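PROTEIN DESIGN WORKSHEET
SECTION A - STRUCTURE
LENGTH: 471
TOKENS:
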């Protein structure tokens, strides 16, 4: 028996490779499927099944491509409906993988079709559960992703409670829990950085599993949920209806362009330029109207949160050798319209004598002096609301990057704004977007709130602020 968790940190996503006696199964595969095919080939195994725990909202699954290339059957739990060939299993149905069995446990609550897969060893003993977004390490799935007009978040939370207590919590304590996500995913609130655990330990430490009643569970699970990123519903629809093959997306995007062609394509196709370099490198020199979303951070989720049109043509600025990685990560969240990248990167653009812009950065020492001597200085804190509530400068405006498309209209193009996040990644994204939208004077605070805490600037831990914007 072989069970391998394949964890992708930038998406906080876990897929699984299961193998026994020459047969294999994949659970919740990512968009690019060659790694799974390669594993099976090296082991001399045949991929028999592709198990989907639900219609994922935060990434595009590789189920359709993998089934096409391997001949495996796509399995969903009860109530799922797809427009491609799939098998909709019954609650309790059993599948064989070599000497192992996988049993379908319909566990609605996160979504109506959400399903947990119970793996039993060759002796028939429960060994592990693949819980998808039903049960995380330290958390449970958010219950608010159902379509409008269907059940409320509170009703879905009640269904989730019933699923956990009727299907999962009665399993042996030593059963391993393998979820679809870890810390950093927007599919839950309090996920642990650990990516697996025993069910018994989760009963002891998971706040949702310790709820005193069904009503207490509903209250705790629904309290403080932020609105889902705008791309979630779009990705769920893609996973339900199918998509263009990843090979075609890759081929379409891997088009190197010299500066003249790149510039002409921007103008002709109305393409958005995404510069994937390190934030501080971007700030020194960048193509006008380009936005910075660094490849070394949570690149794909931030593109998904901020670029509202999946069909938006994209052109990329990348470090040498990074174009395919950027295209792959965009495709994972449904952005399939990359149409090329700048060959030679920003150096080629500069050598061609093309116009560039820059964003000023200020050290935390200079920032401290500015705040102390300029009482009317405008400072944007672009961290998440929970981060802001945990501690912030009293003179800041909370403007979460997640909602920049909502609050940009409040920003005056003629004012000067100092921008910070926790460490510098998100603040440069925000600064670049504001700059592209005509705000001339945006200044990044180096080191973000982590550096600001070392100063004497007045801070508060209060969650109340007269300047706070509500969403």
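SECTION B - SEQUENCE
RESIDUE ASSIGNMENT:
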């Amino acid at each position: 028996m072989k069970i391998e968790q394949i964890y992708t940190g930038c998406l906080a996503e876990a897929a699984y490779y299961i193998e026994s006696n020459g047969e294999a199964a994949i659970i919740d595969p990512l968009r690019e499927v060659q790694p799974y095919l390669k594993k099976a080939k090296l082991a001399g195994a045949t991929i028999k099944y592709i198990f989907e725990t639900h219609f994922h909202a935060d990434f595009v699954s590789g189920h359709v491509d993998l089934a096409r290339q391997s001949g495996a059957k796509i399995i969903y739990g009860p109530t799922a409906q797809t427009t491609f060939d799939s098998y909709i299993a019954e609650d309790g149905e059993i599948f064989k993988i070599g000497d192992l069995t996988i049993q379908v446990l319909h566990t609605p609550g996160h979504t109506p079709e959400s399903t947990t897969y119970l793996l039993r060893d060759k002796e028939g003993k429960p060994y592990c559960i693949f819980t998808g977004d039903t049960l995380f390490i330290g958390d449970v799935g958010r219950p608010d992703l159902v379509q409008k007009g269907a059940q409320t978040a509170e009703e879905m939370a009640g269904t989730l409670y019933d699923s956990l207590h009727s299907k999962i919590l009665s399993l042996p304590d030593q059963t391993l829990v393998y979820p679809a996500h870890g810390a950093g995913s927007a599919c839950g609130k309090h996920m642990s950085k650990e990516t697996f655990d025993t069910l018994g330990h989760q009963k002891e430490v998971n706040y949702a599993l310790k709820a005193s009643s069904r009503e207490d569970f509903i209250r705790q699970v629904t309290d403080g949920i932020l609105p889902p990123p705008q791309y979630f519903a779009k990705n769920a629809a893609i996973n339900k209806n199918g998509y263009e093959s990843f090979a075609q997306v890759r081929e379409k995007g891997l088009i190197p362009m010299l500066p003249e062609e790149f510039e002409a394509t921007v103008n002709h196709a109305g393409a958005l330029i995404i510069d994937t370099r390190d934030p501080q490198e971007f700030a020194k020199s960048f193509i006008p109207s380009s936005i910075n979303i660094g490849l070394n951070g949570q690149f794909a989720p931030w593109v998904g949160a901020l670029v509202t049109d999946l069909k938006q043509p994209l052109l990329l600025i990348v470090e040498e050798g990074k174009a395919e990685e950027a295209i792959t990560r965009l495709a994972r969240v449904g952005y399939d319209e990359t149409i090329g990248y700048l060959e030679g990167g920003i150096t080629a653009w500069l050598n061609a004598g093309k116009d560039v812009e820059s964003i000023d950065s200020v050290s935390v020492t200079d920032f401290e002096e500015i705040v102390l001597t300029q009482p009317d200085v405008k400072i944007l804190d672009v961290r998440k609301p929970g981060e802001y509530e945990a501690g912030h400068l009293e003179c800041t405006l909370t403007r979460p990057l997640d909602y920049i498309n909502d609050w940009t209209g409040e920003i005056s193009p003629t004012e000067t704004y100092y921008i910070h996040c926790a460490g510098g990644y998100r603040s440069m994204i925000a600064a670049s977007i504001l700059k592209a939208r005509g705000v001339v004077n945006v200044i990044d605070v180096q080191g973000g709130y982590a550096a600001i805490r070392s100063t004497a600037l007045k801070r508060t831990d209060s969650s109340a602020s007269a300047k706070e914007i509500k969403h």
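SECTION C - NOTES
The domain at 2-234 is CATH 3.60.15.10 (Metallo-beta-lactamase; Chain A).
Confidence is low (pLDDT under 50) at residues 463-471.
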